[in-house]
Design goal:
The protein is mainly beta and 220 residues long. Helix content is 10%, strand content 28%. The radius of gyration is 18 Å and the shape is globular. The N and C termini lie far apart (47 Å). Residues 55-210 form the SET domain.
């Protein structure tokens, strides 16, 4: 079966229409070439290796009463996942924001609002570098690099926050977390790792999105 239009390869079961399935992260067309060495320190080009869909996870529609995401999809353990294991990398569109030092708070907010990724519920911060960092190729500007899986990504985009979720094996907290990592090629990426207790077969993989994520959506 050939890949569907736009997909890197045929997506896993229960993949939604309208979202492109990735096995490699993609750069935004506006991503500055000067920032690529920050993503790929061992190479001057951006050419990450393909990542297969892990056999230990599956995308499932949530039908549990009281679940905040009922009627939507979640990421579940297809088999038991031990504690301290890398479950899946988080793939999406890599994009950047450059904020000059001399802007005031209002000007910074206006600049952020112009960013098409700023309102995405699937956008994660990957790297932030101050204007004075010796690695920064844009002196006088703060650099932020994010990963947005709203329109294209992999199964990691379906992981839900633990808040408000039903009790799972006596646990109401997260059983996984986001961690900065490196691919086999040494490239920088975000990953989802299981916590100490692991994830039981059939359990939903749940993380903490962080207070910043919730605060932005509550207008705090």
């Amino acid at each position: 079966m050939p890949p569907q239009k736009g997909h890197d390869t045929p997506p896993p079961p229960n993949w939604p229409e309208g979202v492109i399935y990735l096995i490699k992260p993609r750069l935004s067309p506006l991503f500055p070439p000067k920032l690529i060495p920050l993503l790929s320190p061992n190479s001057k080009t951006f050419n990450p290796k393909a990542i297969k869909h892990p056999s230990s996870v599956q995308i499932k529609r949530i039908e549990t009463e009281g679940h905040p995401a009922k009627g939507q999809n979640g990421l579940f353990a297809k088999s038991k996942i031990k504690g301290g294991e890398m479950i899946i990398p988080y793939l999406g569109v890599l994009h950047s924001t450059l904020i000059p030092d001399d802007l005031d708070e209002n000007e910074i907010e206006i600049l952020r609002q112009k960013d098409p990724h700023s309102s995405s519920d699937y956008d994660l911060s990957l790297l932030r570098i101050s204007s004075s960092d010796i690695r920064n190729p844009f002196p006088g500007k703060h650099v932020s690099i994010g990963i947005d899986a709203a329109k294209m990504g992999n199964a990691a985009r379906f992981v839900n926050d633990y808040r408000g979720l039903p009790i799972q094996n006596g646990n109401t907290g997260p059983n996984a977390e986001f961690r900065m990592g490196q691919g086999e090629d040494g490239g920088l990426r975000m990953e989802i790792w299981s916590l100490k207790g692991g994830v039981g077969k059939g359990e939903e993989i749940r993380v903490s999105y962080g207070k910043g994520w919730w605060g932005a959506r509550r207008g705090c």
